[in-house]
Amino acid sequence: GEDVEQSLFLSVREGDSSVINCTYTDSSSTYLYWYKQEPGAGLQLLTYIFSNMDMKQDQRLTVLLNKKDKHLSLRIADTQTGDSAIYFCAESMNAGNMLTFGGGTRLMVKP
Amino acid sequence: DADVTQTPRNRITKTGKRIMLECSQTKGHDRMYWYRQDPGLGLRLIYYSFDVKDINKGEISDGYSVSRQAQAKFSLSLESAIPNQTALYFCATSDATGAYGYTFGSGTRLTVV
Q: Which of A40, A45, A101 lies at the smallest CB-CB distance from B42?
């Protein structure tokens, strides 16, 4: 079955880089996503990567995908206090399949 | 207006009561979903619908039912609420490909006492 795992908590200082990690078990995963959830809000899609890519960069965000190890990471450069939130990774086997979510990583950014 | 609107935002109800959570979307998408969020467990799928005539159970459908009243509306009901249904509930929508992720509502925080 599908399983997506994340560490529960990450604390960084403002201005540092944050790296949030995710592992998944389904080698058929085709689409992998990162969502951000701010307090009192729903999940907001941050970025996604297709399995035929190994890296995607979007401004301060860098997504790295290691298909061999089934490992996905999200790097946030120059982390700001506004980046404090819960970050979820999610995967789906193909377009049209339901997403399977990890448990979420709470990022705390200290001034 | 938000793309996905959930009502109510917060609700406290008593054990055994019937409660309905409502969701509407303005994205024009066919697909809608109901998820439940519990701390440390991520999001778990309750029910999903790929179009008005299509309803499917997710991984944790017991104790819940849904109604897809229109393309834009998908409601979740708890027929007889119990305390372990206390959670944050999210509605989401996606297009037919699902490839570009889901759009989520802001959630309904439900407390069953």
A: A101
- Amino acid sitting at position B43: L
Q: What would the two tokens of residue B77 be?
A: 């009901």
Q: B54-57 and B31-38: which strand pairing?
A: unpaired
CB contact at 8 A, B110 and B15: no
Interchain proximity B107–A41, CB inside 8 Å: yes
Q: Which two tokens stand for residue B97?
A: 């490909």
Q: From residue A40, how far is each of A36, A100, B31, B101 by CA, in Å?
A: 12, 22, 24, 20
Whether residues B58 and A98 touch (CB distance < 8 A) is answered with: yes
Query: Who wins on pLDDT, A7 or A13?
Result: A13
pLDDT tens digits for range A44-73: 999 999 888 899 999 999 999 999 999 999
Check CB contact under 8 Å for A98 and B40.
no
For the segment B67-84, what is each residue's pLDDT rounded down to a tens digit?
999 999 999 999 999 999
Each residue of B87-104: pLDDT tens digit?
A: 999 999 998 776 678 899
Cα distance from B104 to chain A (closest Cα, Å)? 6
- Residue B66 sits at φ, ψ, to 5 deg, of -135, 165
